């Protein structure tokens, strides 16, 4: 894959859930495109290791997106470290529990909705005013094709992702006058450790999940990061309130 241009030169991007998988790939891509990046994650150690490998334009902070004070602190950390904020990516999601609505524990339901949906609300609540004060920018929620089409035994995950897609639209309506664009990005299956909770390796994941995608394979995290960087950049200056499917055609049929 080619890495294009310096579309994010001098902009500051806060990524919630940056320590691994898609979040880490987005952080790398943003740095490659000239941004300064705050890697915020529940797990501080891997976030700090990532920021170390990314160099002086990256910094890490501990952040639990389900906690209002923690979300506020992460935004304040970005302000103190880099003086402004141009982009927010909400990427965090709790491990998904495989269960029907009948079998799912109430606590598992609450955890998935809390991290995946309420977390986006809390991060946005504190980040949008700083993006506004910085002259406008872009918010990107990492959704899923399962926010558009349902799948078996993933009721909390499907509901959280559908909510996230519509939260982006509602925020886009409210904040367009402030030049804050808000979009969601919905991947298909992506080769991250998230899949290794269900499959022994990526080859096995690809063999099972790949055929459900029109392109016949699962994605690499860098393919999702490329689309996120586009939505963060001024190349997407006329895009708000949209859900970008980056799903290899999964939801097409
Ligand atoms: N991997 C896939 O197949 C796939 C497909 C579609 C959508 N997605 C979505 O992409 C996003 C990233 O997925 P991934 O595969 O990279 O998963 P991942 O588990 O590798 O990454 C999730 C990150 O979020 C962090 N996190 C979890 N709870 C948090 C909290 N309370 N506060 C802050 N950070 C927290 C984790 O520490 C981790 O770094 C998720 O929103 C996921 O639903 C993934």
TrEMBL record:
Alphabetized UniProt keyword annotations: Oxidoreductase
Pfam families: adh_short_C2
Transmembrane recorded as keyword: no
Signal peptide location: none
This protein's record includes keyword Oxidoreductase: yes
Stored PROSITE patterns: ADH_SHORT
InterPro entries hit by this protein: NAD(P)-bd_dom_sf, Sc_DH/Rdtase_CS, SDR_fam
UniProt similarity note: Belongs to the short-chain dehydrogenases/reductases (SDR) family.
Alphabetical list of PANTHER family matching this protein: DEHYDROGENASES, SHORT CHAIN, ESTRADIOL 17-BETA-DEHYDROGENASE 8-RELATED
This protein's name: SDR family oxidoreductase
